[in-house]
Amino acid sequence: MQKVVLGQIVAPHGVRGDLRIMPLTSNTQLFLDMDYLLLPNERRLQIVKARPHKNIMLVTVKEITSIEEAEKLRGQKVSVYREDMPELPEGRYYVGDLIGLPVVDEEGKQIGIFKDVLQTGSKDVYVIQPPEGRDILVVNIPENIREIDLQNRRIVVRLPEWDEEEIR
């Protein structure tokens, strides 16, 4: 089963064993939506409560009840199984589901592989890794991103004219 890393335990919080977790995802809502976290050794921690605090998440789990127990988890990454994550509305995708997908133009010609998303604050920018050369950056707007087809494992894009000439 595929796992998705949500964050890293950075410290205990308080004497009752709450965890300070630095999110490694832009979707911190997942900490509030999920009912468990997995440690790297597959140990499952049941979430009792989670809340944002400054730039971290404070998470209370059933299995950890003291600061000493929480301290032993410092530095460990926490994850969840991909299939347990909430379904997203139509037209929204988890970045992890897109990474590695082939990216083609409207004629079906391979441009590269989906590598990452840069979040700029207004529009996401998709990073496409071509077979050779520099990464191609494409703003996620309907004129550029023509289709995301998870079932057939491909992303169809229309590159801005200046990018098309660079990759040929």
Automatic annotation (TrEMBL):
One of its GO terms (cellular component) is ribosome. Transmembrane segments: none annotated. Residues 6-84 form the RimM N-terminal domain. The PRC barrel domain binds ribosomal protein uS19. Binds ribosomal protein uS19. An accessory protein needed during the final step in the assembly of 30S ribosomal subunit, possibly for assembly of the head region. Essential for efficient processing of 16S rRNA. May be needed both before and after RbfA during the maturation of 16S rRNA. It has affinity for free ribosomal 30S subunits but not for 70S ribosomes. This is Ribosome maturation factor RimM.
